[in-house]
TrEMBL record:
Keywords: Phosphoprotein
PANTHER family attached to this UniProt entry: STRESS RESPONSE REGULATOR PROTEIN 1 (PTHR44591), TWO-COMPONENT RESPONSE REGULATOR (PTHR44591:SF21)
Coiled coil: none
Domain of life: Bacteria
Entry-linked Gene3D superfamilies: 3.40.50.2300
Organism per entry: Methylobacterium dankookense
Protein name as it appears in the record: Blue-light-activated protein
């Protein structure tokens, strides 16, 4: 089976944290098309709660600008305390790029700048989960 045809393995789960319901809906749609289970959170507090739970999370997709007292990068870093190998895809507006750390990403982290096309989102998700 070619890499393009890779679908999710059983139970692979992605957490989406974004305060815009439309963005969460779009990302969830892409994930479900790929065969992943999606969990949604609307702010960093709810997102971190999921990250600190025992729920399986294969990838975190998060906006950088989030309500809840911490931004997406801070939430991801806090989540990695319990899940050291957590893979993270940051969704960011151009101006927020600096908040990610000016491109200083840890291994397993990637950035997707808004606006993006769904195919780009799908391929980044597949790459990250496959460990590319």
């Amino acid at each position: 089976m070619g890499r393009e045809g890779r679908r999710a393995e059983q139970g692979e789960t992605v957490l989406i944290v974004d305060d815009e319901p439309t963005v969460r809906m779009l990302v969830t749609e892409v994930l479900e098309d790929l065969g992943y289970t999606a969990i949604e959170a609307a702010d960093s507090v709810a997102g971190l709660k999921v990250l600190q739970s025992d729920v399986r999370i294969d990838l975190l997709v998060t906006d950088v600008g989030l309500p809840g007292g911490m931004n997406g990068r801070q939430m991801a870093d806090a989540g990695r305390v319990k899940r050291p190998g957590l893979k993270v895809l940051f969704i960011t507006g151009y101006a927020e790029n600096a908040a990610v750390g000016n491109g200083h990403l840890d291994p397993g982290m990637a950035v997707l700048t808004k606006p993006f096309v769904m195919e780009a989102l799908a391929s980044r998700i597949k790459e990250l989960i496959a460990g590319a």
